[in-house]
């Protein structure tokens, strides 16, 4: 399974692709899509959407995972992150990919085991899990790879929960034992 993780940002949008072969995980791509801060916002959004569409078309992932903005102290940063995240969701949906979102804390918990992990801890753990010679840089790439890893570990549980919630409940007898 190929999973494309996207760490949204309007100035710098990190991406990382992780492939799962049985129980083995491997990073197959990673990088950053950038836009010039001097370019008007509508044009930056158009350019970013074009880059994300091209990335999804090139990688052809089974799933696209985008960081969900849960809390941000800087409103401007939150808006830009939300706009870039929305573009990533559109590009994934247009391509017919499975789409998932996780908060930063969910990703840190899945990858590092601690929801308040530092960027450095995430980078080092991503390198260890993907058997990379050194931590991915810049942090946007490590965060995107961490998103993909989070999804690959959470996906089986999510599917089991979905299947259980759509399954018909068992019929019970008067004594409460399932039939």
Specify the biggest β-sheet: 5 strands, mixed
What is the SS-derived class?
Answer: alpha/beta
CATH superfamily: Ribonuclease H-like superfamily/Ribonuclease H
Summed over residues and divided by their number, the pLDDT gives a mean of 89
Task: Name the strands of the widest sheet in spatial order.
Answer: 3-2-1-4-5
Q: Quick one: overall form?
A: globular
CA-CA gap between termini: 38 Å
Low-confidence runs of at least 5 consecutive residues: none
The CATH architecture is 2-Layer Sandwich
Radius of gyration: 18 Å
Total domain modules: 1
Helix share of residues? 40-55%
CATH topology: Nucleotidyltransferase, domain 5
- Name of the CATH class: Alpha Beta
Order of helices and strands: EEEHEHEHHH
Range of strand content: 15-25%
Task: Count the E strands.
Answer: 5
Q: How many helical stretches?
A: 5
């Amino acid at each position: 399974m190929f999973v494309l993780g996207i760490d949204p940002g309007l100035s710098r949008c990190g991406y990382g692709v992780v492939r799962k072969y049985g129980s083995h995980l491997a990073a197959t791509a990673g990088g950053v899509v950038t836009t010039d801060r001097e370019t008007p916002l509508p044009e930056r959004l158009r350019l970013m959407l074009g880059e994300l569409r091209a990335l999804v078309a090139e990688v052809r992932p089974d799933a696209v995972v985008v960081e969900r903005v849960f809390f941000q102290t800087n409103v401007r940063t939150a808006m830009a992150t939300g706009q870039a995240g929305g573009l990533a969701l559109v590009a994934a949906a247009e391509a017919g990919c499975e789409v998932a979102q996780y908060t930063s804390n969910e990703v840190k918990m899945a990858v590092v085991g601690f929801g308040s992990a530092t960027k450095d801890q995430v980078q080092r753990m991503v390198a260890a899990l993907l058997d990379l010679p050194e931590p991915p840089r810049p942090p946007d790439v490590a965060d995107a790879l961490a998103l993909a890893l989070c999804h690959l570990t959470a996906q089986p549980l999510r599917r089991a929960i979905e299947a259980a919630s759509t399954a018909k409940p068992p019929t019970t007898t008067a004594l409460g034992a399932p039939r």
